[in-house]
User: Fold these one by one.
Assistant:
Number 1:
Amino acid sequence: MRRFSELQKTHIPVYGSSATMQAMRTKFDYVENASHSFGGVPRVHFIDQAAPVEISKATITPLPVLHGTDSIHGYRVDCGGKSLAYVPDCSAIPEITFQALENLDAMILDGLRPQKHPTHLSIGESVEILGRIGARRSFITHLTHNSEHHELQRRLGEAVTVPWDGLEIEC
């Protein structure tokens, strides 16, 4: 963050829930305090995001999901008539969030490993949820090394894509 804020010569906006932003302000109090005498401090601006926000031509909507017992956010991005949702780190999706995941061009969802996990979706749970959402393209992410890429893609077939480094998605 430090290098990016230096290059841009401005504070970088960091969005999140009120609880997350309060934790960030506590843990990283020095980033908003320009009076620190040491150099190399990233400059960020913490922004509580409880509602959709417009950034450039995109509307970014926070989506409540669960990470174990913690309420966190995934995001839906709508731009130019296309839509993508990114929920890379969750263990459950509340019913209200499923409504916000309708009519997606692409859905990217957590699927950590084959076995159940207390704070992440398993691959099977992820595939089931991706089927329920019914996006035009579905991707599973946050995979561990417990799954061999090509074998997992073969098992999932064409319904769900196992992404790779450098993959670009066009909706």
Note: The longest strand covers residues 58-67.
Number 2:
Amino acid sequence: MSDRKDKMSDQSLRQDVIDELEFEPSFDAANIGVAVENGIVTLSGHVSSYAEKIAAESAAKRVKGVRAIAEEVEVRYPERKRHADDEIAARALDIIAWHTALPDDAIDVKVEKGRVTLSGEVRWHFQKMAAENAVKKLGGVTAVTNLLTIRPVASVPDVKDRVEDALRRNAEVEASQIRVNVVDNKVILEGGVRAWNERAVAERAAWSVPGVVAVENHLSIS
């Protein structure tokens, strides 16, 4: 009986994910396949840009009941929209240079077959993500690997208390269900949350505390 119930639950979740993909206007869901097993969603098929691939994954994560995402969507650019690696690299460097939140000459860019790799050192996690968000929208990009590291700073006191306070202030998460541990300014989040978006919100809250150089998110979806 339990197996039958789980199967029906997966079928219902699959339809919810399909509906959410079709509802999202930033990409065409016609070429995206969805499979679900035990709450784990597998996306397959192809889209016409890397930005669309990320948008499809984000849409699936918004659906209540999704426990994890296995993402197998390919990026297939039309021939007229293909770009040489050196062109992509030049555009990536330009867009990073123009971004007011990013430090000058701190980020290195490597491009191979449309795959962009970012390396270097920044002061804040939001700068690391800003660099990735800037280049993933460029034409010709098929994947982004973000190897940017957070610059170490002198040990900041009370990191654990600050993270817990940040979680309590956030209306989108149930802070009482989250355990926070700190080792050498690395924050480890454990416990359970109600939905995938709460997991992401809790991680962002941890990153917002000065002195945090890494976050390990072990929160499960309950």
Note: The first strand starts at residue 32 and ends at 37.
Number 3:
Amino acid sequence: MRIAVTGASGLIGAALCDSFAAANIQVLKLVRRPVATATEIRWDPVQGVENLALLENLDAVVHLAGAGVGDKRWSSEYKKQIRDSRIQGTQTIARSLAALTDKPKVLISASAIGWYGDTGDNKVDETAASAAGFLPEVVRDWELAADAARDAGIRVVHPRTGLVMSTKGGALAKLVPLFKFGLGSPLGNGDQYWSFISLTDEINAIRYLIEKTEISGPVNLTAPNPVTNHEVSKTLAKLLHRPMLPIGVPSLILKTALGEFSQEVLGSSRVIPAVLQRNGFGFEHPTIAQALKSALIK
């Protein structure tokens, strides 16, 4: 099996490539710098793939590249970077694959639960309409950007990933040091739902979607039991044998520190992985305690 991956140096991409390597699957990494090995292909989200012929006869392409949503404060310039890195990059990959003679069987094109916006206490699954706002609109256009591949007859799957529980990146990596020093607390009032997934389940789900030929379109990559931020904080403090501060980080401080991105931290997202559940996918870490334990021992 031959699989190409963009975003291979990121949290999910690196773990996915390691998983492929352990299974003796040949991986071609699409990189933006000069290539260093024969298993790399240079590409640019705007200019395209440098040697398109190297993408012939692939079994799958996993497209994960995009600027980190929480990496920087949301200035107008960075919001444009968040959007352009996703829309332009996906259009380039989709058009490149559509132009091949021997096209891949499937394109796994990353997406996010930002599609749903703030759901409050309401549970939502893949049938829910897109919300209004910056991130929902970005996610909607991000998924539409893969249309060239769909139109060319390639099966396209959009894994809408939730909060990946890993100490190597994402929200948890920023929380763990605070909790280790006994400074951990809920964010805001802590009542907002966090739809999480362990890194192990994220990788297993992507590989499952490559193999499950009857699945296409959006698929929520979240554990089946979303919990509130207060529950995440309480469980993390317990696992680290540290106290949890009784008073949450005030919303005003978060808004001052994070700017517009604070809406995503304080917003509630109660997302259910209906497609995965309906197709019999088995989660290794369906609860927040299991997901956090998995992250903390790695």
Note: The radius of gyration is 19 Å.
